[in-house]
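Field log, afternoon session.

UNIT: design team B
ACTIVITY: writing a sequence onto a fixed backbone
BACKBONE:
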């Protein structure tokens, strides 16, 4: 008797010449080609009872059999960290990320992260890459607030990652920057790469920069500062922070690319907020928009700046 996690797929004449990992990824639900390769290399899939490599080319009549291993917990512990969930279903969760929350565990941050929180709050989390873990599609800096989508299933991760790669996801931000802008709107098209000296920073002066484009418009003007709405057309590391600094309007409170002179007293972080995400649902294809309200600290700074004007 075949168990619920066992599988057996005969190769049809039309499958002749198809790679084993491609074939298996197309047959197994919630499995990408790379995940199918992982199963094959781990001995969880065979062809006619024999171990084969992921690149094996199938012949008509071959039978691919195997068993799906149970997803294993990651080495990261679930933690009851509060989350502001804007939307959630079986495929994905959209949150309003607070300042100070690191998205993914890394050296020095194995606890207290968004991943630790999601492992606690999402009991229906499915296996991704043979692990029970959320799929990080994109990231926000630790002290950037706002809208963030995370995949809960392998198929959703693959679909959302493709949307970000092909730039069909709309990403809108709000930022408070130093100075008055020249004009009501504009675009910054400056390539971004690693800083030539400080490898922890990004720069528009990198020798190996990648294309980057940010559109901006002025939402509100103050004395010595501006509130911008920005749209990312690419997704480079620190893109908005680097582009704003490069055009002479660094973000208020930015400890890396900003300038302390002129920052409101007591500012603890960069005033950057991921306002809005618009994307296609990874399973239904429905176009969906998610928006996070301004955090209290950024709203207070805006109110103080507005009071000074008038």
């Amino acid at each position: 008797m075949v168990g619920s996690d066992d599988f057996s797929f005969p190769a049809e004449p039309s499958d002749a010449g198809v790679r084993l990992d491609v074939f298996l990824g197309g047959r197994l639900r919630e499995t990408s080609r790379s995940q199918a390769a992982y199963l094959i290399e781990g001995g969880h899939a065979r062809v006619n009872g024999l171990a084969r490599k992921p690149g094996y080319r199938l012949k008509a009549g071959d039978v691919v059999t195997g068993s799906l291993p149970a997803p294993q917990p990651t080495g990261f512990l679930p933690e009851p960290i509060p989350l502001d969930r804007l939307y959630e279903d079986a495929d994905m969760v959209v949150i309003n990320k607070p300042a100070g929350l690191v998205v993914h565990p890394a050296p020095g941050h194995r606890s207290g992260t968004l991943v630790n929180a999601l492992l606690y709050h999402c009991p229906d989390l499915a296996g991704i890459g043979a692990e029970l873990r959320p799929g990080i599609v994109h990231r926000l800096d630790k002290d950037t607030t706002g809208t963030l989508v995370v995949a809960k299933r392998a198929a959703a991760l693959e679909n959302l990652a493709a949307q970000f790669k092909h730039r069909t996801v709309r990403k809108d931000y709000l930022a408070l920057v130093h100075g008055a802008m020249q004009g009501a709107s504009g675009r910054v098209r400056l390539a971004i790469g690693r800083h030539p000296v400080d490898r922890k920073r990004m720069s528009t002066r990198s020798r190996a920069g990648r294309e980057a484009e940010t559109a901006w418009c002025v939402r509100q003007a103050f004395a010595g500062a501006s509130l911008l709405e920005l749209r990312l057309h690419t997704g480079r590391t620190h893109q908005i922070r680097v582009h704003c600094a490069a055009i002479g309007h660094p973000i208020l409170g930015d400890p890396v690319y900003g300038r302390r002179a002129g920052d409101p007293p007591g500012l603890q972080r960069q005033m950057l907020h991921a306002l809005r995400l618009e994307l296609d649902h990874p399973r239904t294809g429905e176009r969906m928009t998610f928006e996070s309200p301004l955090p209290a600290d950024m709203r207070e700074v805006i109110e103080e700046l507005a009071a000074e004007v008038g």
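LOG NOTE: The first helix runs from residue 20 to 27.
NEXT ACTIVITY: expression trials, pending approval
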